[in-house]
Amino acid sequence: MFSLIFKALNKAFVTDEKDAMEEESPEVIITEQSVIRVPNNGSQSAEIIEIHAKKGDIIKTDQVLIVLESEKYVLEIPSPYLCKIEEVLVHIGNIVSENDALIQVSPHS
User: Fold this and answer.
1) 104 near 30, Cβ under 8 Å?
2) Which of 22, 52, 59, 93 is deepest in the core (most CB within 10 A)?
3) pTM here?
4) Is the CA virtual torsion 102, 30, 41, 13 positive or negative?
5) Which domains occur in the chain, in start order?
């Protein structure tokens, strides 16, 4: 799940009003290491403009990890589960495409 914000005429709007509301999500827990990747976003590439996680951070389900920007949209990549950041695999300014690895995570114990 991710929020997709389109840019049009220098104005941004959220595609789903429910995504814009801050709601508590149930924590989803992983049991082994995993990699968070760029979702299928309908675009060939996007630039990493923000990184909100660093090695050692404990991240909650739906907490925004990375923000991507293309010509058409800004895309927030949230964590799909409660986890610990093992390694951030990208840097601000990197260009990424669908399915590229972003962050390596492990279970939070």
Assistant:
1) no
2) 59
3) 0.74
4) negative
5) 3-18+27-106 (2.40.50.100)
Give the other-Cβ count within 10 Å of 87's Cβ.
13
Length of the chain: 109
Mapping DSSP to helix (H, G, I), strand (E, B) and coil, where does residue 62 land?
coil
C-alpha–C-alpha distance, residues 104 and 36, integer Å: 6
- Whole-number Å distance between alpha carbons of 22 and 55: 25
pLDDT tens, the chain, 109 aa long: 444 554 544 444 444 544 444 556 678 878 899 999 999 877 789 999 999 999 999 999 999 999 999 988 899 999 999 999 999 999 999 999 999 999 999 998 7
| Cα dihedral 14, 79, 48, 41 sign | negative
- The partner residues of 47 in beta bridges, in order of sequence, read 69, 95
